[in-house]
Design brief:
- By secondary structure, this protein is an alpha+beta fold.
- It has a single domain, classed as Beta Barrel (OB fold (Dihydrolipoamide Acetyltransferase, E2P)), CATH 2.40.50.90.
- The protein contains four helices and seven strands; from the N terminus they run ββββααββαβα.
- Strands 1-2-3-6-5 form a five-stranded mixed beta barrel. A two-stranded antiparallel sheet has the order 4-7.
- The chain is globular, with a radius of gyration of 15 Å.
- 33% of the residues are buried.
Length: 163
């Protein structure tokens, strides 16, 4: 993952994955302090895996039944679970202007030891879409990656045009 000279980033190393929460969230632990943090993958959005207000909103906006959206959510969740196993070492990259979301979760790009961004892997494979409700330096790049996945009908785009 490359960062722009314009953005102020914070790079945090020494984390391991504890648990995958859903298609765009996970829990990590600092390997020294043992403190755990819930991470919301920055700049992307995967379908929901639980019933709630967000699912109802998605149903209204997308005109798709909640049960179908939950199925898509579990496909994103399974993809992420297969890509990152508990114990895997990761680095967190954060934009200084947006460190956490309204629920207190840490917003981060999660980078594997091979340099690959989990955020981008989800987009490239069609299991997440760009999220534009919170400012993200990578939004234009993420939109291009998602458009390519959509045109190639990867991941969830095999079943739907929007999610």
């Amino acid at each position: 993952m490359q960062t722009s000279a314009n953005e102020q980033t914070i790079i945090r190393t020494g984390f391991e994955v504890v648990k995958i929460v859903d298609g765009d969230g996970l829990i990590v632990r600092n390997i020294i302090s043992k403190k755990e943090e819930e991470i919301r993958l920055y700049g992307i959005d995967a379908p929901e895996t639980k019933r709630g207000d967000k699912l109802k909103q998605d149903e209204r906006e997308l005109h798709l039944p909640g049960s179908f959206l939950l199925t898509l959510g579990y496909k994103s969740f399974d993809f992420l679970r297969n890509k990152i196993k508990p114990g895997r070492k990761v680095t967190l990259v954060q934009e200084a202007s947006n460190l956490s979301d309204k629920y207190g979760r840490t917003l981060a790009y999660v980078i594997l030891s091979n340099g690959k961004s989990i955020n981008e892997m989800l987009l490239e494979n069609g299991f997440a879409k760009p999220y534009d409700k919170v400012f993200c330096e990578k939004l234009p790049i993420y939109q291009a990656i998602s458009l390519k996945a959509k045109s190639k009908k990867r991941g969830l785009f095999k079943e739907v045009r929007v999610f």
